């Protein structure tokens, strides 16, 4: 028996019928997938294969019903489609096993700390693993820094507190009575209280920065105005130490910034510069436009920061000398971390280089176009 050979108009009908049925099966398949959307990828792959096979079979059956092909030819076509479907299911099964196995490998790796991303995963899983690895590493570094900070700060708080308690007890017990010592103790206690308060303020500020809760009210300001404010604020400290503090601003240098916060960041740099510059030395602030950025720098005469310390000065609680004994004017090593946090919240950058008789700290901010 010879099968009917599809003529051209038959071919049009075949395409139309199979396409229609295919769309119907595809819609059903998508509905099933939606229903199974939280199941294993293996189940979804099986659905894909089943949809492909059913769509083909439906087409073949529809065509046989139009008697275009019949008898052995029809059986041959049906068995070929069925076998193809089985092969597809087999491949889907193997693939699903691999995907499921690899995702189990990923889950097992996540359970282990420190997390190391497994290699040779399928692309999407590899991306997830790499992203996770980075996030874990960042979290670990932050956690370490936090723990160090707590340890150092509690040490820094305890030492002056112990001194204050000793002085207060001596005053209370009448151990010191001569007026000069009594007033020295009172002055000392007041100084320590001020220092501790400033430290607690800094800690609070830093924790807000780290929590991303720094609220900036940004407006267009001239960097030279911020420089002038900072200069006025630091002038008494410079005069007391005999350091010459000056500013050079070529133009207004407009930036979009929270003037208070930016002034605080700059003040931290200036106070450091004055602290590390010997008397008769000078500290210079410069505001200018450089390579399309608003740029403000603080140059001092500190004699240079050791090369190995340069990348670490902005770290929380970093204070240079290995011995961490608090000195009279010693800070907690938070000033530069705060300055960095403020500058980065302004989409800016902060850096330091050794330059001439000392070092130069520099803040760079996006420049706002000058008004026309
Ligand atoms: N202008 C500077 N010249 C030399 N060293 C500096 C200067 N500014 C900062 N440093 C170094 O960086 C450290 C961290 O500074 P900072 O975060 O302000 O903390 P703190 O002032 O409380 O020590 C300082 O202890 C000092 O070692
Ligand atoms: Mg400081």
UniProtKB/TrEMBL annotation:
Ranges where the Histidine kinase domain occurs: 152-369
Keywords: Kinase, Membrane, Phosphoprotein, Transferase, Transmembrane, Transmembrane helix, Two-component regulatory system
Record SMART domains: HATPase_c, HisKA
Superkingdom in the source lineage: Bacteria
Annotated GO CC locations: plasma membrane
Catalytic activity: ATP + protein L-histidine = ADP + protein N-phospho-L-histidine
Location in or out of the cell: Cell membrane
GO MF assignments: phosphoprotein phosphatase activity; phosphorelay sensor kinase activity
EC number: 2.7.13.3
Transmembrane segments: 12-36, 43-69, 75-96
Pfam families, per database record: HATPase_c, HisKA
A GO biological-process term: cellular response to phosphate starvation
PANTHER family: PHOSPHATE REGULON SENSOR PROTEIN PHOR
Protein's UniProt name: Sensor-like histidine kinase SenX3
């Amino acid at each position: 028996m010879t099968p009917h050979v599809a003529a051209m108009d038959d071919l049009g009908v075949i395409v139309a019928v199979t396409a229609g049925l295919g769309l119907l099966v595809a819609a059903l398949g998508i509905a099933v997938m939606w229903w199974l959307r939280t199941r294993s990828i293996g189940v979804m792959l099986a659905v894909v294969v089943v949809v492909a096979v059913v769509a083909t079979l439906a087409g073949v059956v529809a065509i046989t019903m139009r008697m275009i092909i019949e008898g052995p030819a029809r059986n041959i076509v049906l068995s070929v489609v069925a076998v193809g479907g089985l092969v597809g299911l087999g491949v889907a099964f193997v693939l699903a096993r691999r995907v499921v196995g690899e995702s189990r490998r990923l889950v097992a790796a996540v359970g282990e700390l420190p997390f190391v991303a497994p290699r040779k995963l399928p692309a999407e899983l590899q991306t997830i693993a790499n992203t996770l690895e980075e996030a874990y590493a960042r979290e670990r570094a932050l956690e370490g820094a936090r723990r160090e900070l707590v340890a150092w700060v509690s040490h820094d708080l305890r030492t002056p507190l112990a001194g204050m308690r000793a002085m207060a007890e001596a005053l209370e017990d009448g151990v010191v009575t001569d007026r000069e010592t009594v007033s020295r103790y009172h002055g000392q206690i007041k100084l320590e209280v001020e220092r501790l308060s400033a430290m607690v303020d800094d800690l609070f500020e830093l924790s807000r920065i780290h929590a991303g809760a720094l609220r900036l009210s940004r407006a267009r300001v001239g960097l030279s105005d911020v420089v002038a404010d900072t200069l006025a604020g630091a002038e008494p400290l410079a005069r007391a130490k005999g350091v010459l503090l000056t500013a050079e601003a070529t133009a207004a240098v407009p930036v979009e910034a929270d003037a208070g916060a930016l002034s605080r960041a700059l003040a931290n740099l200036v106070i450091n510069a004055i602290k590390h510059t010997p008397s008769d030395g000078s500290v210079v602030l410069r505001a200018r436009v450089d390579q399309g950025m608003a740029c403000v720098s603080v140059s001092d005469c500190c004699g240079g920061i050791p090369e190995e310390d340069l990348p670490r000065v902005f770290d929380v609680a970093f204070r240079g000398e290995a011995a961490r004994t608090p000195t009279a004017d010693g800070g907690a090593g938070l000033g530069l971390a705060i300055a960095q946090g403020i500058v980065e919240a302004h989409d800016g950058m902060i850096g330091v280089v050794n330059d001439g008789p000392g070092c130069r700290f520099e803040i760079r901010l996006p420049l706002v176009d000058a008004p026309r």
